[in-house]
UniProtKB/TrEMBL annotation:
InterPro entries: Auxin_embryo_med, HATPase_C_sf, SACS/Nov_dom. This is Sacsin/Nov domain-containing protein. It comes from the Eukaryota. Residues 51-153 form the Sacsin/Nov domain.
Length: 1358
């Protein structure tokens, strides 16, 4: 305490004390000190009123110790020891002993301590003295009635009670020789250590012991930061006889380093490392210290500091957790105040304090002046902290921004400092921006922006893979350093006003850095997903997003448009390029991918060969493959299809799209080869091949591409048709003659086509044909108007035979030209077939009789040979006459035509119910005409006029107009059929065609009324019961015409269903053409069945399947309706193999009831109890047999036919997809074992397949990448899921093979853990990091560890 050394002559310490007692306090003198009472009251007032808390006596003692002088070479220390021994013999239960290794009390110090307000440090602020009140030591009276002092030979004590010798307390010194003695002190301090020069002994008041103990234990460890001398402070407590010694607090400055002086701002910086031990807990913290001087402004000067010309402001920035906790003092005046600022740094200055030392004086100009300088000091300190170390890694900078005072202070004056700091920091180039080179760039906060976290991932991967990103900040704003742009710093960035990049920046960056072209597929997928996630959904109307690029393979080099999707365009060369969404959507370009991975390369090759017809652009092979396995594929696909108009092409869809735009000869041949190889490789079914062939563009013999055709003819060269017809006679009828190119061999898209292979394919699938397989049009052809050679005649007959055998009706014009053409050689020259006769030996000579009057053209059988007789049916079809009767009929017709009385045939003289008619227009009524009368009014002969006897002249009516006497009865009878055609029609067969015509007219003009329908059915029943002949043509019309009114409009009987009770349950599941007024027609169900109407469910199963219309709400489907639907499938499969396409499409809904709810058939299982040892019914979506009953087993094959998995061995994927529905551990383990038994592996191994049971909660599904099987080091429990804690060994192998779960943490996991520890920055973990580093070096020797460890070690250990 020798701040002012000096003696009182040569007096010894004891004599000096006696002199003070005598001279100042009049002890030992006769008179009394007149000021004794005033002195006592002054000391009492100051000691009790100026300090509000017991702790302040400690602060005053520490302040005194800081102001003391210390010998050179000594580390100043201050030690407090609380003992339960009463070493002062005052009856105290506890005694506080303070040891200080200063130079010791001088005489002046003793003089000062015996006074009030006479400090030896007054006026010495500039020398570093921090005390000033002159009563610092007196504060001990708050806790002790008799403080004792040992120092430099002085052994004195004071008493708060007035001395009986002078009636003054507190400041009257009293010498003592024992209680305590120096040996007592040495025993407490430790017999092996030399006693410090100064020792203060405070026997504590009984009421103050808890408060003293509490305040000693809560001493602020940071109080050493701003003391320039004291380097160690300790507080201990010992029991009786020095037992149970316990260190409550021990704080020391272990190092002071990196001292730098900055002359431009009159500042210095250094780092202090504090070691503290409190209540057995060791703590360490390094503080970055900034000390800066500011001149005292005149307007802020005060009398108490009139000798001070400079403010010295020190700021302390803790690296890591502060030793004093979150609510430690924020303002120090060399020693801590009670002010909590909410700032992450500490402010130290020579503040003027309130008497209590709890706070600074807020209204003091001196303090306001200091606080006004704090923002400048902070900015200078912060800039030096962030920018000084040029080689500091980027990740070391963001933690320093935690020193910004982002939280408001509860003290308005202090918060104004915070706001001033914020204002200044916004003008500083202090924010680290992202730089992809060695040059660090610092910007103002307003010049940088944050990036979306997804885009950071993209840039990070791109940079690691070597993509040049040096121009990243040339698109508007600078980018915030990636280490800074995390959620951890959200509050800091908000304080700095640093927001996110506007969305227009991203496409500029993508284009400017050429990311679409440069990044590999893995990163490209992330880029697509980023575009998809942030398209117009969140930011509608943003024009920049529409400029995202597609990756394309263009035939014209790199596309200069703007967009992010690669496509595969190909002409005769392949160049990587891009196409933008605007170009795709506005210019009609078609972005495409293949539906199946096996088709990707194949379709791209053909698209190249076809020169990208219809502006079809395929994504490149690698891109499509990457997209198939991309975990966010659904999002990207939805975006591409919705906004990029991307199409998913099957082989058939691609072929259909291309066929309509091929208009060049070469490309048409290429396309034909494409379809040929599509068929040859079996990529699509025969039905789809037929569809593509039907629309295939054809190259004709002139080299033109023809898209419209009725028939395709094989090339003329080597064909039969050219010999028969000479040239293509039906070109105008769209009959196309193929080019000879189809016979040639060639290589297309690396696929070889042998010679004639394509021609055979075209014949089989396009229908290219030669005679006799050509289907002729309804047109004539010229060559049959002239004589044909024998070979061509037989070829023509072969042609006709082939058409007939195929059930083809010969077109009328074609047939007429053959019939009427003079090409058949006869006995009287070349004649038309219809005028020619093929005679036999039996009756051939008889025709010579008639030939006297008529020339008879007999076919020249000698010319054609015997083979002609094998074409009898064909000759008969084209009109050749074979029978004698036919020949006689011909002769008779010829003769009759000469003698017929035309007036009898044509005149209307016969009276009918509709007026007079000619015989050929009248009908003779009979019961057979009942049905016809229901359809139309017919001119029946008026039997009321002629009487019933008219029916006896039926034959006469037929022959009425003939002269029987002239021709003779025999001749008349022989030509009765011809005669009937001249007379009255009396049989139903003769007028059936008339009736059917009337019926058709009635149906086409309007629907038949219900009563007429019932009458018609009644007539039909009566004729069937009488076994009478129902008019054939009318019956045919009734079967074929649409005259029955159904729920779906007018239908033919074969397309109608008669509703009855059998249809009740199924009617709600399908749209079926039920006949209206079915109840009225129920009595005619036999007649309706005969006409083709479906009556039973078995007959109408096809209507149900084709009209399937399952309800939206599957719960409305009853058991009966479901079983009847399965029954319909069963009926259909009895006669046909494939289910209708309409049914296959309509059945793909969630309608099957399973134990896990309603599912689509292909997502359902038919549980088999034979697997019950492996899996239970409820483990997957098994058919609910409790609902469907045992009868459902009968329809196992039908369920299989619609997609239900009936063999559990093949249901692994379905069971696995429903894993996440379960939360019971036993169920999940059983399912895992089931999947393991059948060696199942997922297609997507990145899904959250792993169930981790929880302790307090049910558990969670986690990703395999976040799991390991074992953790032998026991370091990763907080970072990874360790599966051997939850599952048996046999399942661990399954997790490894099925989900690629790692056996142990890999190097990447260790590095992440390393970085986590580094981030925590707790020195007590250094040994663990060192251990880990050693293991990593020993096990891996990775370049990362070798290069990273030395620098990190230096940073932590220095």
């Amino acid at each position: 305490m020798s701040s002012s050394k000096g003696g009182s002559g040569e007096l010894s310490p004891r004599d000096h004390v006696e002199k003070i007692r005598r001279d100042r306090f009049f002890i030992g003198r006769e008179e009394k000190n007149p000021l004794a009472e005033d002195m006592h009251q002054a000391v009492n007032y100051l000691s009790e009123e100026l300090y509000s808390k017991d702790v302040h006596f400690l602060m005053e003692l520490i302040q005194n110790a800081e102001d003391n002088q210390y010998p050179s070479g000594v580390a100043p220390s201050l030690e407090f020891v609380l003992t339960s021994e009463d070493i002062t013999a005052t009856g105290a239960n506890s005694t506080l002993v303070i040891f200080n290794n200063e130079e010791g009390f001088s005489a002046a110090n003793v003089e000062s301590i015996c006074r009030v307000g006479k400090s030896t440090k007054k006026g010495q602020r500039y020398r570093g003295c921090i005390g000033e009140k002159g009563i610092g030591f007196k504060s001990v009276f708050l806790v002790s009635s008799q403080p004792h002092i040992f120092s430099n030979g002085y052994q004195i004590r004071f008493n708060e009670e007035p001395s009986p010798e002078c009636d003054i307390g507190y400041i009257v010194p009293e010498w003592f020789d024992e209680h305590p003695t120096l040996s007592d002190l040495k025993k407490i301090y430790g017999s092996t250590n030399a006693l410090p020069t100064t020792t203060i002994v405070l026997p504590l008041k009984a009421t103050k012991i808890p408060a003293v103990r509490k305040q000693l234990s809560s001493m602020h460890p940071e109080l050493l930061l701003f003391l320039s001398k004291i380097r160690k402070l300790s507080i201990k407590e010992i029991g009786d006889n020095n037992t149970k010694q316990k260190a409550l607090t021990e704080v020391s400055i272990s190092s002071e380093k990196d001292y730098q002086t900055r002359k431009n701002v009159d500042a210095e910086s250094y780092a202090l490392h504090l070691d503290a031990e409190q209540a057995g807990n060791e703590e360490q913290c390094t503080y970055y210290m900034w000390k800066q001087k500011f001149p005292v402004k005149s307007e802020y000067r005060v009398k108490k500091r009139e000798e001070v010309d400079q403010w010295t402001i020190t700021l302390a920035f803790p690296h890591g957790q502060r030793l004093s906790g979150a609510h430690a003092p924020g303002i120090y005046a060399f020693l801590p105040t009670e002010m909590v600022t909410n700032f992450p740094f500490i402010i130290q200055a020579d503040f003027l304090l309130a008497s209590s030392r709890e706070t600074i004086l807020f209204d003091s100009p001196w303090n306001k002046g200091i606080l006004e300088c704090v923002p400048s000091a902070f900015i200078n300190a912060f800039a030096a902290l962030v920018k000084t170390t040029s080689d500091a890694p980027a990740f070391s900078l963001p933690p320093k921004f935690k020193f910004l005072p982002i939280h408001a202070s509860p003290l308005q004056l202090i918060d104004s400092v915070r706001l001033s700091i914020k204002k200044k920091i916004l003008e500083e180039h202090i924010i680290p921006s992202q730089s992809y080179n060695k040059q660090k760039i610092f910007c103002k906060p307003g010049e940088v922006r944050r990036l979306n976290s997804q885009f950071w991932d993209i840039l990070d991967k791109a940079q690691k893979l070597g993509v040049d990103l040096q121009s990243i900040s040339s698109h508007g704003h600078y980018i915030l350093c990636s280490c800074f742009d995390t959620k951890e710093y959200d509050d800091v960035l908000e304080f700095l006003g640093i927001g996110y990049m506007d969305w227009g920046w991203y496409p500029k960056c993508i284009k400017g850095c050429d990311l679409v072209k440069e990044v590999p597929e893995e990163v490209y997928m992330m880029l697509l997903h980023f575009a998809a996630e942030h398209w117009l959904l969140c930011y509608p109307g943003t024009p920049y997003l529409q400029e995202y690029r597609y990756r394309v393979l263009t035939g014209y080099g790199y596309d200069s448009g703007t967009a992010p999707v690669r496509t595969g365009y190909a002409t005769w060369r392949t160049v990587s390029g891009t196409a933008c969404i605007n170009r795709v959507t506005q210019r009609g370009l078609r972005l495409c991918i293949a539906s199946d991975e096996s088709l990707i390369s194949w379709l791209i090759s053909w698209n190249r060969e076809l020169a990208c017809p219809s502006d079809i652009f395929f994504m490149p092979l690698d891109t499509q493959r990457s997209l198939k396995g991309f975990c966010k594929r659904a999002t990207v696909m939805d975006w591409l299809q919705r906004y990029g108009k991307m199409e998913v092409f099957t082989a058939y869809k691609y072929g259909s799209a291309v066929s309509g735009v091929v208009n060049e000869r070469r490309l048409a041949i290429v396309y034909a080869n494409f379809v040929f190889h599509l068929w040859q490789k079996g990529y699509i079914s025969e039905g789809y091949i037929k569809g593509l062939c039907a629309s295939m563009p054809i190259v004709d013999n002139y080299g033109s591409v023809v898209t419209r055709r009725s028939q395709v003819l094989v090339p003329a060269k080597g064909s039969k048709w050219v010999g028969l017809m000479g040239s293509n006679p039906w070109r105008s009828e769209n009959y196309v003659e193929l080019s000879g190119d189809y016979r040639k061999s060639g290589s297309f898209a690396s696929n070889y086509t042998p010679q004639n292979a394509l021609m055979i394919f075209i014949q089989n699938n396009v229908g290219a044909a030669d005679v006799p397989y050509i289907l002729p049009p309804n047109a004539s052809f010229l060559t049959v108007t002239s004589p044909l050679t024998k070979e061509n005649t037989l070829l023509l007959l072969d042609w006709i035979r082939n058409l007939r055998s195929g059930g083809v009706a010969l077109p009328s014009k074609f047939l007429d030209s053959v019939k009427s053409g003079s090409w058949l050689k006869t006995s009287i020259g070349y004649k038309p077939p219809k005028d020619s006769f093929l005679s036999t030996e039996t009756w051939g000579s008889l025709l010579q009789i008639g030939s006297d009057m008529v020339d008879i053209p007999m076919i020249d059988q000698e010319f054609y040979g015997k083979v002609l007789s094998t074409y009898k049916n064909e000759l008969q079809l084209i009109g050749v006459i074979f029978e004698f009767g036919q020949a006689s009929e011909m002769i008779g017709k010829h003769l009759m035509s000469r003698a017929a009385n035309e007036a009898v045939k044509k005149d209307g003289w016969l009276k009918t119910c509709l007026g007079n008619r000619s015989p050929s227009e009248a009908f003779l009524f009979s019961s057979e005409w009942t049905a016809a009368s229901c359809i139309a009014n017919l001119p029946f002969i008026d039997d009321k006029y002629y009487g019933q006897s008219i029916f006896g002249y039926k034959l006469e009516l037929e022959l009425l107009v003939l002269d029987v006497q002239f021709y003779g009865s025999v001749v008349i009878r022989s030509y009765s059929e011809e005669l009937r055609k001249l007379g009255v029609a009396v049989q139903s067969k003769q007028v059936s065609k008339v009736m059917s015509l009337k019926f058709k007219q009635l149906v086409s003009s309007s629907s038949i009324a219900k009563d007429k329908v019932l009458l018609l059915l009644k007539s039909y029943r009566q004729l069937r019961q009488k076994q009478s002949m129902f008019p054939a043509d009318l019956l045919s019309c009734m079967k074929d015409e649409k005259w029955l009114q159904t729920k779906m409009g007018l239908r033919a009987p074969v397309d109608s269903v008669l509703f009855n009770s059998d249809w009740d349950s199924i009617s709600s599941l399908a749209i079926v053409p039920f006949i209206e007024y079915s109840s009225d027609m129920e009595e005619y169900k036999d007649e309706l069945r005969a006409l083709g109407v479906a009556i039973t469910l078995k007959q109408g199963a096809g209507f149900v399947l084709k009209g399937i219309n399952l309800p939206t709400d599957p719960t409305t489907m009853t058991l009966n309706s479901s079983l009847h639907l399965l029954k319909c499938i069963k009926y259909w499969k009895e006669n046909k193999t494939d289910l209708p396409k309409e049914f296959r499409d309509g059945i793909r809904k969630k309608w099957l009831r399973t134990v896990l709810g309603y599912r689509c058939p292909d997502e359902s299982l038919f549980y088999d109890s034979k697997h019950s040892s492996l899996i239970h019914r409820g483990d997957g979506p098994s058919i609910d047999e409790e609902f469907y009953g045992s009868e459902v087993v009968l329809y196992k094959e039908q369920l299989k036919g619609i997609g239900v998995t009936v063999d559990m061995r093949y249901g692994c994927s379905i069971v696995a997809r429903h894993l996440i529905c379960h939360s019971e551990r036993s169920t999940i383990v059983r399912i895992y074992k089931f999947l393991k038994a059948f060696e199942w592996e997922p297609e997507n191994k990145t899904f959250s397949w792993i169930w981790v049971p929880g302790e307090d909660v049910a558990g969670e599904w986690v990703f395999p990448e976040n799991c390991v099987l074992h953790d032998n080091s026991n370091l990763f429990a907080s970072e990874l899921h360790i599966l051997d804690k939850f599952y048996e060994e046999d399942l661990l192998g399954f997790f490894s093979t099925a989900f690629n779960v790692k056996d142990e943490p890999d190097i990447e996991n260790y590095v992440k853990l390393w970085k986590l520890w580094e981030k925590i920055q707790l020195p007590r973990f250094l040994w663990r990091i060192a251990w880990l580093s050693g293991n990593l070096l020993e096990c891996t020797g990775t370049l990362f560890v070798r290069s990273y460890w030395p620098s990190m070690s230096r940073n932590y250990l220095s």
